[in-house]
Amino acid sequence: MVELDDVPELVDPVVIAAFEGWNDAGEAASGVVRHLEEIWGATPLAALDPDDYYDFQVTRPTVEMVDGETRRISWPTTRLSVAKMPGSERDVVLIHGIEPNMRWRAFCRDLVGIMLELNARTVVLLGALLADAPHTRPVPVTAASSDAALTTRLQLEPARYEGPTGILGVLQDACAKADLETVSLWAAVPHYVSQPPSPKATLALLRWVEDVLDISVSLGELPEQARAWEHGVNELAEQDSEVAEYVRALEEQKDATELPEASGDAIAREFERYLRRRGDAE
């Protein structure tokens, strides 16, 4: 168990977590946590002992230069930081890690133990997966929750996925067993442009975080980065007729299966965001 020393008393803290690796296509999910750490000025809180959970021949440590002179070893691990959410009385605990190589159940017990010690009640888990999604359309985000109230408020569909899972799936199960209100958000990253970063997918997840927590988040340069990313992919597709044809096929498939009511829900959600942002600015 990780010992927490000199931790300030937190106000109704919410946990937001993302893990690099299998759960993080295009680094879209970890990109959200990095963005929040920066704009909210998060301060370090704790780190798990990497010897307990990582195989260093699989996830290797790296050598870094400090002040251009001293070399330092940076070990792969999972770190926690804390910040105050602007416009809210609540604190936030940000978890940014690498999917562990071993002892997943103990890993999740450690994290859930920290959440309970900090008196957290809400956990938001972020992930991203590769999918047959066209880069020219809004990034699909799948949301699921173990909490009935959250499922009703966000109008979520019950999770029906069956198959292999990553550390997010195991952690969500551990959180549910600890009676923590948990929601997982998964962005679909086009598989033909899977190299990080994926600012458009990061932006889509961030907007869902706003909805789940009913807050407004400063987006910084993310919207412009998302437009530049899409423009860059368009140019690449124009240079390859097979890729361009494949993208058109994905667009037609997406447009044909998009239900009118789903589009209406998306418009309503965007309008609610607009009203919330205008209220915050006044």
TrEMBL record:
UniProt superkingdom: Bacteria
Pfam families: PAC2 (PF09754)
Name of the molecule in the record: Filament polymerization regulator ParJ
InterPro entries, per the entry: Proteasome_assmbl_chaperone_2, PSMG2_sf, Rv2714-like
